[in-house]
């Protein structure tokens, strides 16, 4: 007999967006409220934001930590159910799960994330793997211990950190369709700065510290229906430090200059070979390797086995179209994180990018929106959506991205100021008519809050000219 459950708020997804949404709803729930919150997740391990360090009004640096569903439920007085969304009947405010449960909701928030966009030429090959969540990194970790040759396809954050962190292999081939590395985040100048670190990392004292975080194992396998393929939540910042992805048995050996970068090419074909795989690139180059890592972006996970009784409006990227309240086109159904498309009119210095920072911000905004509707209150969009902001780590450096840091959407009508100290810092200011529109800060620059203020306030910096980045002048003294 099917189990029938009733909740005020149902959140689907145990990633950063879903967990943040559930935690925020707990904070907003009145102490005398009888409202019930359910988090529906496919994995007994969920991703929670911890150790939040403010670097400015909006900008925050934080860790992402795995938590057991039991700990999350106990800490927030919510219910967590291990199951998978099967269908939505929005007219009746009901969802059904693959285990046969029928759950009634007042408000539903979809935080189902995204799935890896595996390269087309993989053809279902078991030796071509995507890296997106904890489970896929575990698969990679097992494979790397016996491998000698690796091909990494992709040019984003995960691909960049993977190439830098993996050691002990005879060959690492990095295949990118762009003319320079890490183009998802940085310009060609910063890429050259990073390339120096990649080329000289053998001489860098980079003793890797593995985070000794609590590791959980799946104990309640019977709670999920048999035969379900579970997807874990997306990786967070410093993900590589939570896993041992080194090749063992070859102490002291590092990749160093064994990394070969193939620029402006794509994978044309992948064939099985006696020694593993044979990868042919569009420039005719043939590479033999043990396995291929595809880190070529993600696709919003918007499909459920049973679908929905109404058709969701989708964005051009396939994500669920949401307004600034994180409402989808279907009443009382919200969405947050990688699964959604930000369909509202954006602030001049903000744009959508599927990153853990925005997953956290959207999850919190969806919670505020649902709680306000429940209470009959009016709210305003969170201030964090006034300016794009993200903190990450690339090639061992802290990287801060603010506003239109690469001149996005400015139609090349902007001026760039640069300051670079090899091996230490790379600072880039993007200005239009003397006003700061974006900043890229690599290294421990200490300029995060100053740049944030200058972008938000739109102060005319023309009088300072190129002195703005003079290393002998502390610009924080001018504007703080």
UniProtKB/TrEMBL annotation:
InterPro entries: FAD-bd_OxRdtase (IPR050260), FAD/NAD-bd_sf (IPR036188), FAD/NAD-binding_dom (IPR023753). Its cofactor is FAD. Keywords: FAD, Flavoprotein. This is FAD/NAD(P)-binding domain-containing protein. The keyword DNA-binding does not apply. Residues 8-200, 255-363 form the FAD/NAD(P)-binding domain. The keyword Secreted does not apply. SUPFAM superfamilies: FAD/NAD(P)-binding domain.
């Amino acid at each position: 007999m099917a189990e029938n459950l009733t909740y005020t708020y149902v959140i689907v997804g145990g990633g950063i967006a879903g967990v943040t949404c559930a935690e925020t709803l707990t904070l907003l729930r009145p102490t005398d409220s009888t409202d019930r919150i359910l988090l529906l997740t496919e994995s007994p391990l969920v991703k929670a934001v911890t150790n939040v360090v403010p670097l400015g009004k909006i900008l925050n640096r934080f860790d992402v930590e795995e938590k057991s569903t039991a700990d999350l439920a106990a800490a927030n007085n919510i219910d967590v159910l291990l199951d998978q969304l099967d269908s939505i009947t929005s007219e009746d405010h009901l969802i059904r799960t693959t285990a046969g449960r029928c759950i009634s909701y007042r408000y539903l928030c979809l935080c189902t994330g995204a799935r890896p966009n595996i390269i087309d030429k993989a053809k279902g090959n078991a030796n071509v793997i995507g890296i997106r969540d904890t489970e896929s990194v575990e698969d990679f970790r097992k494979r790397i211990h016996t491998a000698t040759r690796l091909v990494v396809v992709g040019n984003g954050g995960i691909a960049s950190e993977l190439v830098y962190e993996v050691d002990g292999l005879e060959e690492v081939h990095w295949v990118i369709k762009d003319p320079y590395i890490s183009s998802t985040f940085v310009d060609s100048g910063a890429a050259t700065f990073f390339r120096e670190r990649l080329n000289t990392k053998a001489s860098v004292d980079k003793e890797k510290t593995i985070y000794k975080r609590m590791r959980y194992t799946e104990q309640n396998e019977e709670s999920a229906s048999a035969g379900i393929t579970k997807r874990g939540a997306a990786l967070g910042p410093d993900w590589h430090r939570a896993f041992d992805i080194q090749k063992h048995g070859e102490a002291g050996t590092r990749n160093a200059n064994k990394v070969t970068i193939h620029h402006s090419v794509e994978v044309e074909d992948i064939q099985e070979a006696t020694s593993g795989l044979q990868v042919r690139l569009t420039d005719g180059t043939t590479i033999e390797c043990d396995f291929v890592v595809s880190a070529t972006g993600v696709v919003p996970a918007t499909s459920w086995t049973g679908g929905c009784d109404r058709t969701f409006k989708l964005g051009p990227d396939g994500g669920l179209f949401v307004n600034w309240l994180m409402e989808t086109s279907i009443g009382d159904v919200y969405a947050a994180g990688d699964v959604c498309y930000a369909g509202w009119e954006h602030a001049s210095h903000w744009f959508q990018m599927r990153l853990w920072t925005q997953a956290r911000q959207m999850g919190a905004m969806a919670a505020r929106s649902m709680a306000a509707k429940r209470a009959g209150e009016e709210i305003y969009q969170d201030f964090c959506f006034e300016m794009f902001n993200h903190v990450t780590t690339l090639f061992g450096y802290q990287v801060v991205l603010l506003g239109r840091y690469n001149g996005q959407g400015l139609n090349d009508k902007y001026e760039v100021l640069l300051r670079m100290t090899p091996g230490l810092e790379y600072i880039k200011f993007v200005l239009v008519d003397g006003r700061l529109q974006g900043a890229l800060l690599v290294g421990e620059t200490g300029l995060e809050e100053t740049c944030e203020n200058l972008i938000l306030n739109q102060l005319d910096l023309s009088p300072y000219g190129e002195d703005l980045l003079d290393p002998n002048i502390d610009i924080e003294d001018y504007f703080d």
